[in-house]
Each structure stands twice: as C-alpha cells, then as structure tokens.
Amino acid sequence: MPMTIDEYAAWAASIAKVEEHPSNERLSYLGLGLAGEAGEVADHIKKLLRDGWLDQAGLVNELGDVVYYWACLCAATGQQPSEVLKTSAARINRRLSEAASR
C-alpha cells in the first residue's frame, strides 16, 4: 500500500532524526539540503538546454531528494505536508481567479 505524504514525512523525519523543537542549526541544515537538491534539479534542466536531452532518471532522483528535505522541514516545523499542499493549492487557485478577473 502506498504511503501518504504525511506518512512519508513522518518516515523521513525519523530517518533524519528531526526532533519536536529542532535547533536553528538543524533547520538550517534541512533548508540548505532543500536548496542544494533544488539546485541539482536546476542543473538537470540546464543540461537539457545545453545538450538537448534530459536525464529523466537523474531528474526523478533529485526530485525525490527535494521531497525528502521538504518533508523533513514540514515535520521540523510541526506542519502536516497534506495541509501545506492544501494551503498552497488554495493560494494558487486564488491567484488564478484574481488574474482571470482582471
């Protein structure tokens, strides 16, 4: 049975040993990990533009690493990833509605 995003976040937090009240250093580590992995995603896109082909397997691996750090940060800040996604979708839909009404 597949994991929900909330189950994945709990698993990732246990692997990363995320505590209930992580230190600023730990939060910084997770944030920098997220930024680093996002940079690796960008590097795959850069290589697509430069070389004309996409290493799709490599890109998928990096996207998984992005999700891992994002999920750890959700757990570290006491957020349920499903709620973060719900809030994000609502915010994006609101922006789309506002843009369409202009």
TrEMBL record:
Gene3D superfamilies: MazG-like. It comes from Bradyrhizobium zhanjiangense. Residues 32-95 form the NTP pyrophosphohydrolase MazG-like domain. This is Pyrophosphatase. It comes from the Bacteria. It holds the Pfam family MazG.
